[in-house]
Write a structure and sequence with these properties.
single chain, alpha/beta, five-stranded parallel sheet, 11 strands
């Protein structure tokens, strides 16, 4: 890839439409890169754009030829002559060696890629959220414990919480981003169970910014995933007990909530990266 400084960089981001934090990350990258040139979404696992959160992305319509392809590790196209950037959002598929650059979402993913592909060119870009969407507005908190229930992500924990706390448990299921943000701003507690294949999950960050006391296992709330905050528990049994105790804890302060990075900071990193790519 080559070009004069300041020349537009045209790109395509490959992304699916389904509910997952990684999808929001891919769409965010598409929006940021559209400020440097043309950038649109090439869908896979469905012909439509995601509609469960607000974005300004458009479908790729073949009206331009991209210089750069950005894709997640779960879908790795290969087009000779293009610059390939694999955005490794998690450990759901090994990164193929045709990637010119692997952008990693956390130190855990960076190390994982390095172990598998020691010769790969990798870069850590720390993750972020759109803080303005979730920012706590000072409303009185309700005695609610939120849990994001997913079929593949410890649904039994939701049952244990229900058994212990009944109607105080609010399960976040199939809600759009706006409704999730409102639920988190209302709730006092957010319980998080992660997936070992994740790179750096969004929900606990969004919950903290919304003023929730985050409760999770030590393996899920730690610095390697940029989730080094909240009440960390050594077992599921302790997690269930601490969820109830957290209802009596103070709402996290603005200083405590500030540890979560805003998307404007991550955008600057992606812009800097692509300006460097444009000089290659």
């Amino acid at each position: 890839m080559s070009g004069e400084p300041g020349q537009p960089i045209n790109s395509v981001v490959f992304a699916p439409p389904f509910h997952a934090g990684g999808v929001k990350s891919l769409y965010a990258v598409c929006e940021w890169l559209s400020e440097l040139g043309r950038c649109t979404i090439k869908t896979f696992r469905g012909p439509r754009l995601a509609d469960w959160f607000a974005h300004r992305c458009r479908l790729y319509d073949y009206s331009y030829v991209p210089d750069v392809l950005v894709y997640p590790e779960i879908h790795q196209p290969h087009f000779p002559g293009k610059t390939h950037v694999c955005y490794a959002l998690g450990k759901r598929a090994r990164v193929e060696p045709h990637a010119d650059l692997v952008v990693c979402k956390s130190r855990a993913i960076l190390d994982w890629v390095a172990d598998d592909l020691p010769d790969a060119t990798t870069l850590l870009i720390e993750p972020s959220i759109k803080r303005a969407v979730f920012e706590y507005d000072g409303r009185p908190k309700q005695d609610l414990i939120c849990y994001m229930t997913r079929p593949h992500k410890h649904p039994e924990t939701a049952r244990l919480l229900r058994d212990a706390y009944g109607e105080k448990v609010f399960e976040i299921v199939n809600l759009n981003e706006t409704r999730v943000a409102e639920a988190l701003r209302d709730a006092k507690v957010f319980v998080w169970r992660g997936d070992e294949r994740e790179g750096s999950p969004r929900p606990p960050k969004e919950a903290l910014v919304a003023g929730c006391v985050v409760v999770g296992l030590e393996q899920d709330l730690n610095e390697r995933y940029h989730t080094d905050f909240g009440v960390r528990c050594s077992s599921v049994e302790e997690l269930i007990v601490k969820a109830g105790e957290a209802l009596r804890m103070p709402t996290p302060t603005a200083e405590e909530r500030a540890v979560v990075r805003d998307s404007a900071e991550e955008k600057r990193d992606w812009h800097a990266l692509f300006r460097c790519l444009g000089k290659l």
